[in-house]
Specification:
The structure is a single chain. The protein is an alpha/beta fold. It has a single domain, classed as TIM Barrel, CATH 3.20.20.30. The protein is 44% helix and 15% strand. Strands 1-2-3-4-5-6-7-9 form an 8-stranded parallel beta barrel, surrounded by 8 helices. β3, α4 and β4 form a beta-alpha-beta unit. α2 runs parallel beside α13, α7 packs parallel to α8 and α12 crosses α13. The longest helix is centred in the first third of the chain and has 17 residues. The chain is globular, with a radius of gyration of 19 Å. The two termini are 18 Å apart. The relative contact order is 0.15.
């Protein structure tokens, strides 16, 4: 794959509204606005939030509200969900919420959909109640949502107002091969969570591309890979900054979740050998280093995967360092 193709790669942002040690959710939301305004200037295509619940370090539980907040504070960047966990909601309610967003911010709203609960089992029961098995209805609920958002639904007895006729672009999200089959069958763009579940990534996108059926929304397969990126002025600085991300993943593995921690000099003080191995498996699709190293690694990744778009998430403790990482990543893709 040539440098020209690297330069043509679409690049976007996934913001988990991460709360850092010593700060609050209110601080996080202010930083999200600042980041969104900067990445809009730096050529990023989208700014997405992911629905999570009962996680002290993730403040994006009310996803549609944060989307509205960012869309109001920016002017052109697309804003959306990466994703809404549809089994947690009624398709009609999501159609109304996102229909309202699309009415307020025309041609700027994306709706990414996932089937996972975005939380632990006990919290999932609290969210879904008697609808706990709604995950089995995910394929039909996606179809219902598409219907509510279409102008064809104007004669139905149940309508999404606002929402009807907005035809908001829908994406299928996944971290396994199940979602690849669905995205292909429905002819929808496919976003894979390779930033934390890379094991089935290559298999999933092959399934998606092989089985893709064109639709009114999309004529040919479109793959987005969500990736971790920590870019700094030197490889050593990036490695140091990335220890915050590694500590976060240790918390995921052990179940001992904490707010995003400051970077540390030596991770050997934090993890054991088994935890280290597990973290590096999760980090398989990550770009950590100075510009030259990340450029080389990114080119190799594109050669292997031929993805259309990367969505970057950067768990960096210091806000200015986080901004700098996104700026440098954009410069790489702009050939600067």
């Amino acid at each position: 794959m040539s440098t020209k193709q690297l330069a043509s790669l679409v690049y976007s942002v996934l913001d988990l509204a991460t709360v850092v040690e010593g700060k609050t959710a209110a601080d996080t939301f202010k930083k999200s606005v600042d980041l969104a305004r900067h990445v809009e200037e730096w050529g990023y295509m989208r700014y997405w939030f992911a629905e999570h619940h009962n996680m002290i370090s993730v403040a994006s539980s009310a996803t549609s509200l944060l989307i509205a907040h960012i869309a109001e504070k920016t002017t052109k960047i697309r804003v959306g969900s990466g994703g809404i966990m549809l089994p947690n909601h009624s398709p009609l309610i999501i159609a109304e919420q996102f229909g309202t967003l699309a009415t307020l911010y025309p041609e700027r709203i994306d709706l990414g959909l996932g089937r996972a609960p975005g939380t632990d089992q006990l919290t999932s029961i609290a969210i879904r109640g008697e609808r706990f098995n709604a995950v089995n209805d995910f394929p039909s609920d996606v179809r219902k949502l598409q219907t509510y958002l279409s102008s064809d639904n104007r004669f139905a007895k149940v309508r999404a107002i606002p929402g009807e006729g907005t035809d908001i672009p829908i994406w299928i999200l996944g971290s396994s091969t199940d979602s690849a089959h669905l995205a292909a069958a429905y002819g929808l763009p496919y976003a894979f969570a390779s930033h934390f579940a890379p094991q089935q990534f290559l298999t999933a996108i092959e399934i998606y591309r092989t089985n893709f059926k064109p639709s009114a929304q999309l004529q040919k397969p479109y793959v987005m890979a969500c990736v971790n990126a920590v870019v700094a002025d030197s490889d050593a600085e990036a490695e140091y900054l990335s220890t915050s991300l590694k500590q976060l993943f240790v918390g995921v593995i052990t179940g001992k979740r904490r707010l995003l921690q400051p970077p540390v000099i030596d991770m050997q003080d934090v993890w054991n050998e088994m935890e280290e191995e597990a973290v590096y498996q999760m980090l398989a699709v990550s770009f950590i280093g100075g510009k030259e190293k990340v450029k080389t690694d990114l080119q190799s990744f594109l050669d292997q995967t031929l993805v259309n778009e990367v969505m970057v998430t950067s768990h960096i403790y210091d806000h200015q360092a986080r901004l700098q990482s996104y700026k440098l990543f954009a410069e790489i893709l702009q050939g600067r």
